[in-house]
C-alpha cells in the first residue's frame, strides 16, 4: 500500500512538473510576442544600425507579420493543448479516486471539471497575463534575448505556418475582407489608448495627444468634411478691374483667390495676391490684366481622403484646391492650412489677432466654439462625448447630421448635449443639460 502511494505521488509530481514546463513554454511565447510587437521601431532600427545581430533578426522575422504571429500562435496553441491533455488524462484520475467515495458516479466528471478549471486559471495567470506584463515592461531585453529561439522555431514549423497563413488568407478572402494590411495591425483605437496612457503617465502633454489623434484620424476624413463651402468662397472674375481685385484682397486678407470665368462653377485658376503688387506698380489705368497672372488650379472630388490630399499638396506644392461635386460643380475649396488644422488645431496669424477667441467658456458645462474646432478639443474642454465616427470638427458633425452646411439657428441634440449655430460668425454654442436645468422648452 505504501509503495502504491509513493508511486502515485511520484507520478503526480512528474505530471505536475510536465504541466509547469508547458505553462512556462506558453509564458515564453506570450512574453516574446508582446515584447517584439511593442518594441519601438526607431529603437530597433538604431540597434540594427549599430550592428546588433539580434535586432536585425527581429526586423527579418517581423517583416512578414502574419508568419511571425502564426509562429507564436503555433507555440502557444501546442503548449496549451498538451497542458490540457496532460492534466485531463493524468491528474483527473487520481482526483476521481478520492472523490468517487463521496460523489459516486459523479466523481470522474467533477474531478475532470475541477482539474480543467484549476489548470486553465493557472495557465491564464502564469502563462499569459504575468508574462505579457513582464514583456511590456522589459520589451527590448526580452525581444532581443528570445529572437534566436523564435527564429529557430519559425524554421522548424515553417510548413505548418505556411499552411496556416494560406488557410487564413483563403478564409479572409472568402468573407470578402481581402488581405490584411500589414500597416494596420495596430488599430487606431489601440494607438489612441497608448497615447492616452502616455498622457496619464506624464510622457506626453494634452496638446501632443490632440496632435497625434488628429494625425491618426486624418485618414478617415474626406475633403468634404473640412472644405470651405461654396457660399463662403470669395473669388474674383477674370474680367474684374484691378481696383476691385485689390479691394477684395484687402478686405478679406486672403493670400490666394479663385479666378472664375462667369461664376464659381467655372473656376479657371487661382490668383496669388502678392503677384498684384508687381502688376499694380506697372498699371497706369484700371484695366483687367489678371489672365497673365492666373496660375493653374487643382480640382479634387469631395470624397478624396485627407491623407492623400495632404500628400498631393506637399508633392505638387499646392496651397489651394477646388472641391467639385459629382456633377462637376464647385462645392468648396480646401487650403493647406485647412488640412493642417485638422492635425494641430486652429492656426491663427496676425490677421486673426482681432478675431473672437476660438473658445469661450460660459460655465462648467457650456461654451462657444468656432465651427472649425475639432471634436477632440470640444470633448476635452467640456468633458463630453460628441460622436467622432465620421467627423473631426463641429462643422463636419453638422454636415454629417444635416447633410448640408450649417446655418445660423441650426440645432443638434445628442442625449443631454445641445449644439446651436449662432448668428455671429457661424459659431456654435454647446450646452450639456443637467437635472437642475428643468424641462426643455
Automatic annotation (TrEMBL):
Name this protein carries in UniProt: Hemolysin family protein
SUPFAM superfamilies hit by this protein: CBS-domain pair (SSF54631), FAD-binding/transporter-associated domain-like (SSF56176)
Domain CBS: 227-289, 293-350
CNNM transmembrane domain sequence ranges: 8-209
Gene3D superfamilies, alphabetized: 3.30.465.10, CBS-domain
Superkingdom per UniProt: Bacteria
Recorded GO CC terms: plasma membrane
Native species: Lyngbya confervoides BDU141951
One Pfam family linked to the record: CBS
PROSITE patterns from the UniProt entry: CBS (PS51371), CNNM (PS51846)
Family under the similarity heading: Belongs to the UPF0053 family.
Location of the protein in the cell: Cell membrane
Bilayer topology annotation: Multi-pass membrane protein
Listed transmembrane segments: 12-37, 68-89, 109-130
Keywords recorded for this protein, A-Z: CBS domain, Cell membrane, Membrane, Plasmid, Repeat, Transmembrane, Transmembrane helix
SMART domains attached to this UniProt entry: CBS, CorC_HlyC
